[in-house]
Amino acid sequence: MKKKLGLLLVILLAIFLVAGCGEAPAEETPEEIPEEEPEEETGADGTQKLGLGVVTSVAKSTDADFDAGINPTAQADVVMAAVLFDAEEKVVSVTIDNAQTRVAFDEEMQVSTDISQPAETKRELGDDYGMGNISEIGKEWYEQINELENWMIGKTVEEIKNMPVKTRDEAHQNVPDVPELETLVTITVEDYIAAVEYAYNNAIEVESAVTAGLGQNISTARSMGLDEDAEINPLAQVDTVMAAVAFDADGVVVGAQIDNAQIRINYDAEGTVTSDKSAVPKTKVQLGDDYGMGNISEIGKEWYEQIASLEEWMVGKTIDEITGMPVKTRDEAHQNVPDVPELETLVTITVESYLAAVAEAAENAR
Predict the structure, then answer these.
(1) What residues does 104 pair with on adjacent strands?
(2) How many domains are contained in the chain?
(3) What residue ranges in the chain does DSSP mark as E strands?
(4) Disulfide check for 84: which of 35, 93, 273, 276 has CB 3.0–4.6 Å away?
(5) Where are the alpha helices (DSSP H) in the chain?
(6) What does the alpha-carbon distance between residue 186 and residue 172 come to, in Å, rounded to a whole number?
(7) pLDDT at residue 1 above 60?
(8) According to the model, what pLDDT value does residue 46 have?
(9) In a domain, 5, yes or no
(10) Do 225 and 108 form a contact (C-beta atoms < 8 A)?
C-alpha cells in the first residue's frame, strides 16, 4: 500500500512539472538605471552668475607748467573685470584689465596724441607696458594680474575682499600680503578687487556657462584742442567700451553685459584741469536716466534700456551670428544701427563698438 501511494505521488509530481507549475521563479533582473549626468555648476537658485565690473578715475590728470616745460596730460583710468560665479557664488572665471588712457596737449593746448588710433590696455600692451624692467620680481603687469586672477579662482567675493594687504610704498598701499603671491604679485590691488566686487553686486543670471571673456575697445577720437574764436576750451574724451560675455560648451552666448565709460576731462585755455579730479566718472549704465538719451530718442528709450535689449538679443547666438547682424545708417553719427525686426523699436543706437567688444570677449574667453 505504501509503495502504491509513493508511486502515485511520483506520478502526480511528474504531471505537475510537465504542466510548468513547478518551475522555479525566474530570477528578476533589476531594470538598468542610467547613470546621472553631473549637473552644471549653478547658483543656489539654479543659475550661475555673470558680472561686468568697472572702476574709473581721472585723478592722475595733470595741469600744465609751461615755464618748467611740462605740458598737460589728461588720464582716464578704467579698471574692468569679467567674472563668472558658480553654485556657491565662488569665482570660476575672472579676467581683469586696466585701460590707462592718456591724451596729451601741446603748448598751444592742441591735442598732441594721435587720436585716430585706438588706445591699448595694460594687458594688450604686454611686455611693452614696461613694468618687467623695473619690477623687483621681474614680472610684467599682465603676468602679475594673471597670478592674482588665479588666486581668486575658487574664492567668494568676501574671501577676495578680505585678502591681507601691506604697504610697499606711498603709491602702493594695498599689495597682497599672501605667502603664495609674495614672489608673483607686487602691484597694488584695491581697484582690481573693487572691480570684482562690483561685478558680483551687479551680476546677471546665466545658465550652462562653461567660459567667460572680457572684451573692450577704446577711442579718444572726440578729444579737441583750444579754439578761442569759437570759445571752445580743450577737452580730452576717452570712450571705453567693455563687455563681459558667458558662453556654453558650443560657444553660444548665454549671457552678456556691456557698458561704456564716456569720460570727459576739461581744461581751460591755460592748461589747468577744470573737471573735478576727485570725482568718480559714471558709465552710461551707472548714469541710468541721467544720461539723457530717453528725452531725445525717437523710441523714447534710455541707453541702458537699449543696451539691455541688445544683450538679450545676443543670448542663444554664436559670435558669427552676432557680428553678422544686419545694420543700417540712421544718420552721419549712427552708421551701424541694428536692422533687425525684433529690435526696431528697442535699439536705435549705433552698435559697431559693442559687437566688436563682444567678439573680443569670445577670443579671450576662459
Answers:
(1) 73
(2) 1
(3) 48-57, 73-85, 91-104, 165-166, 175-176, 204-206, 211-219, 235-247, 253-266, 327-328, 337-338
(4) 93
(5) 2-18, 122-125, 141-152, 157-161, 190-201, 284-287, 303-314, 319-323, 352-364
(6) 8
(7) no
(8) 55
(9) no
(10) yes
How far is it, in rounded angstroms, from Cα 366 to Cα 360? 12
For 181-212, write each residue's pLDDT tens digit.
999 999 999 999 999 999 999 999 999 999 99
Q: How many residues does the chain have?
A: 366
> Is 346 within a domain?
yes
From the list 329, 331, 354, the residue with the least C-alpha distance to 339 is 329
Give per-residue pLDDT as tens, 296-334. 999 999 999 999 999 999 999 999 999 999 999 988 878
Q: pTM higher than 0.85, yes or no?
A: yes
Contact 326, 339 (CB under 8 A): yes
Sign of the Cα torsion 181, 186, 190, 194 reads: negative
pLDDT of residue 24: 38
Is 272 inside a domain boundary?
yes
If you average pLDDT over residues 232-249, what whole number do you get? 98
* Residue 13, all three cell numbers: 509530481
Among residues 83, 82, 86, 81, the alpha carbon closest in space to that of 48 is found at 86
101-124 mean pLDDT: 98
User: For residue 314, what are the domain limits?
Assistant: 42-60+70-364
